[in-house]
Predict the structure of Molybdopterin biosynthesis sulfur carrier protein sulfurylase.
Amino acid sequence: MLKAVTFLKESTQAGMLSWSAQSQAVARFGLRYHEVEALALENGIFPARYQRNRNMISIEEQLKLFRSRVAVIGCGGLGGYVIEELARIGVGHIVAIDPDIFEEHNLNRQILSTPATLGKAKVEAAVDRVAEINPAVTVTPIKDYFCLANGSEQLAGAMVAVDALDSIPYRLELAEFCTVAGIPMVHGAIGGWYGHVATQLPGDTTVQSIYRHWVAGKGIEQQLGNPAFTPAVVASLEVAEACKILLGKGELLRDRKLSIDLLEMEVHEISYPKVPPVELVVAA
C-alpha cells in the first residue's frame, strides 16, 4: 500500500488525482477503485471527479461520505435517481433494495430503465449503472421486499434509510423499523405534478402523522400517475437530506414536510407535531 500511496501523491496535480491516475493505480497495484479512492482521501488527496464538490464539501467530509452506507428502499422512479446522485456525490456504499424487474411502463420516468433493461431486476441495473458512473462506489443489491421481518438483515450497518417506496403500508413499516433500529429515515413520495419530502429521526413520528388518515391502497400515485420530472425533483431533495444527515450539517426537514406543487410552482412547509407512534405487529 505504501507504494500505491507514493504513486498517488506523485500523480497529484493541484491537489487533485485524475481518473487516469486512479485507473493506473488499479492496474499497477492490483487494487479496486474503491481501495484507490480510500487511499487518496485518507491521504488528503481529492479525486478530480469531486472537484466541483470542494467549495461546499471539505476533503474530510468527502471521506465521511465515502465511508458512509446508505440503504435505498425502492429502485424505481425515486430510487433510481437517489442511487444515481448518491453515487455521483461519492457515498461509498449503497444498499439497493427492490424485488421488481423493469417493465415498459417504467420507461417514462425511471432513470435506470432502458429498452435493454426490460425484464431485468432493478437492483441489478443499479449495480451496473453505478459501476459505469463511479466504480469506486460499492452497491449491495437485495432483490426482495422490505418488511419488518427482514429489515434487520437488509438495513444492517445503514447510516441512513432513503424511502423510495410506492406503498404506504411498507413506508409505515420502514418508519417503525428505523425508529426501533435507530436509523434516520428520509421519506419521499410522488404523484403526478406533486410530491413531498420529510426527514424522520429515531423517535420522531412525522411519517405516521402524514399518513394518519390512510385507510387502504397504495396511494395517490395510482390515480395521478408520474411524469419524468417529479421523481427527479423529489429524489434530489431526498439526497440533499441524506447528505446533511451523513455530514451533520444544515437544517433537516424534521417534524415538517416540504410539499411541492410543480404545476403551480408552489412549495409549502407543513409542521407535524410528535404523536405517539402506532406499533406494527408482524404476523406469525
